[in-house]
Write a structure and sequence with these properties.
599 residues; alpha+beta; eight-stranded mixed sheet; six-stranded mixed sheet; globular; disordered C terminus
């Protein structure tokens, strides 16, 4: 094991200023939808997401699904400099997308994996719903026109686009560790799911309710109830209305910055505070957990109705993952989806049980955070009501797969006690981890084959009523601890060969993962690191010289199993008794440091 010390690159600060710099605030603003920020600017009495109230309003929702990112990632993942190439193409593509969307007045709500969820309309919008749908349609058509020739080398990136219309509900959920999720939901997502399933590469589809609003203004062709749109008639094209740039008053900057932190993962906050947000992109070995929720309750005309999970006895077999959304928002019993009118006055009495949604998210947050995992998203997209967690992004552990399976079992058991069914997929392997988007709108995301596979296993779990399914990589690490049972291999979308799957049969009895003590605290309370006095001395000499310096970097190199994590945790434990530290992640981009030190 060796150490390299350099007065370069990383800026270390002993305290995060409560008064954010313009650059820090600008970066944080890009991680949160503009409608959220506007809500707090319009309501200066609000001091935290806990005080924010649910809203509902008519809106058009544009869903842009990108194909090709996974192939791009797989092609370059193992090449020297591959991460830079992947980052360049992913963010270059998203930058063009976001610029076109904002030029048409769209607000990016979520980066849903390889997709974007965009809203046209908000709680203070005075435009009619048909105008919003027309703006979304014109935006989708221009995106298809401008990006069909994007050059990503030998990989062709393609788009499927769908537009829906109806009432959009927005919630601010969570609160564990002061972390919140902005959660948009509504019948419009069921519409989009159906329309997207029918679209082909290069096409823009409108749901039936959306088409009904703009049918006089567009050329289109009906396909099974939804509409393929070829163009907006020349005489009815409306001028673009770009999304206005927010101006944060000086006296509101500290309050807004404090609120924004509630919507941004602590791991990302650390990088932003240290001026390292541009260093987030890397290839990492991670474990991914996809959770689909069934049985959520909805408020309809003052009465609570429960969504009925689909089973083989009352529905036809799933033909695609989009069927999951129909299990979460059943179009027949609740009048959501194609039978629902997009007119807001007819949807006025429909709503969602905020308390139940909040309780579900808090259950997941507690389990995921206890295992030092990252809650990637809690959203409704083309796969239904889905929660995504990742283990190994900001802090890596040798047992991340075990943590992911344990989290799946804990979440499933706790959701069951709430009367909810859940179906999950757990996978382990290499993936691109980093910021996607651009300076105007971005999110931290994970992209790769194992992410897609986790979603596919979640769908397969639903089809087979298995509860939780794991892949072979996860089985290699967590199989013995959880007595994973091999099942018959299955075919999944995007794979040519059969995929081995495994079913967890018992929870872990390991106190480290089963207790309520955060795993990080358990590490810090463990026995001291022996036989590394020389290395610890090098680090502390370097830290002593850090006082008064504004840039410093320490790299620790060694083969797997030599104790880098143990040593790093011991250094952090000792340093915490001497200084206030920020950004305690220890595993940097290895390729970057190998180049820097010529090792």
């Amino acid at each position: 094991m060796s150490f390299h010390v350099s007065q370069s690159r990383l800026r270390v600060r002993t305290k995060v200023s409560s008064d954010p710099t313009a650059a820090t605030l600008e970066t944080m603003l890009s991680y949160v939808p503009q409608m959220v920020i506007s809500h707090y600017l319009d309501n200066p009495q609000l001091e935290s997401p806990e005080e924010a109230k649910p809203e509902h309003f008519p809106a058009a929702v544009l869903f842009v699904d990108i194909s090709g990112f996974t192939s791009l990632n797989e092609q370059y993942a193992k090449q020297v400099g591959g991460i830079e190439i992947v980052t360049k193409h992913i963010n270059g593509y998203f930058k063009l997308l976001v610029e076109l969307i904002q030029h048409h007045g769209g607000d990016v709500l979520k980066f849903a994996g390889d997709a974007l969820i965009v809203a046209f309309g908000n709680s203070v919008c005075t435009e009619s719903l048909e105008t919003q749908v027309l703006r979304a349609t014109q935006c989708g058509l221009e995106i298809q026109d401008k990006l069909q020739s994007y050059d990503a080398g030998s990989i062709k990136l393609t788009l499927h686009i769908a537009v829906g219309a109806g009432t959009l509900w927005t919630f601010h959920l969570g609160g564990i560790n002061r972390q919140y999720e902005f959660f948009p939901v509504g019948n419009v997502f069921g519409q989009i799911s159906d329309a997207l399933d029918k679209s082909k590469s290069g096409e823009v589809f409108l749901s039936a309710p959306a088409w009904e609003l703009v049918s006089d203004f567009c050329e289109g062709e009906e396909q099974d109830g939804d509409w393929f749109v070829s163009c907006v008639k020349k005489d009815y094209q409306i001028p673009t209305k770009p999304l206005p740039r927010l101006n944060i008053p000086v006296d509101q900057r500290e309050r807004i910055a404090r609120i924004l932190r509630s919507y941004i993962s602590i791991g990302i906050q650390d990088r932003i505070d240290a001026g390292q947000s541009q260093w987030l992109a890397e290839m990492r070995r991670i474990s991914v957990l996809f959770v689909n929720l069934q049985g959520l309750k909805f408020q309809v005309q003052g009465k609570k109705a429960e969504s009925q999970p689909q089973t083989s006895s009352n529905v036809s077999p799933l033909s695609s993952s989009t069927q999951l959304l129909k299990g979460v928002f059943p179009t027949t019993s609740l009048n959501f989806g194609q039978d629902d009118s997009p007119q807001p006055e007819e949807e006025e009495d429909q709503g969602f049980d905020e308390m139940q949604l909040n309780e579900v998210l808090k259950v997941a947050q507690k389990v995921i955070f206890r295992g030092e995992g990252f809650l990637r998203q809690f959203l409704v997209d083309d796969k239904g009501c889905t929660l995504i967690a990742v283990f190994g992004v900001f802090t890596s552990h040798a047992d991340d797969a075990i943590r992911a399976v344990h989290a799946a079992l804990c979440i499933k058991n706790q959701l069951k006690s709430l009367g909810l069914k859940s179906y999950m997929g757990v996978t382990t392997g290499q993936a691109f981890c980093g910021t996607v988007g651009c300076s105007a709108s971005q999110e931290y995301a994970v992209v790769g084959d194992i992410v897609n596979l986790s979603a596919r296993l979640m769908v397969a779990s639903y089809k087979g009523q298995h509860g939780i399914l794991c892949d072979s990589e996860t089985n290699e690490i967590a199989g013995q601890k959880f007595n994973l049972k091999p099942l018959e291999p299955i075919m999944v979308k995007g794979k040519k060969d059969l995929i081995p799957i495994f079913l967890p049969r018992k929870p872990s009895n390991d106190a480290r993962h089963g207790s309520g003590i955060p795993i990080s605290e358990t590490h810090l309370k463990s026995d001291d690191c022996f036989g590394r006095e020389a290395e610890i001395g090098i680090v502390f000499e370097s830290l002593e010289s850090l006082v008064g310096s504004d840039s410093f970097c320490i790299a620790c190199e060694g083969a797997e199993g030599m104790g880098k994590t143990k040593l790093s945790m011991q250094v952090i434990k000792m340093a915490l008794s001497h200084w206030e530290l920020t950004g305690s992640n220890y595993q940097p981009n290895r390729l970057c440091f190998r180049r820097f030190y010529r090792t």
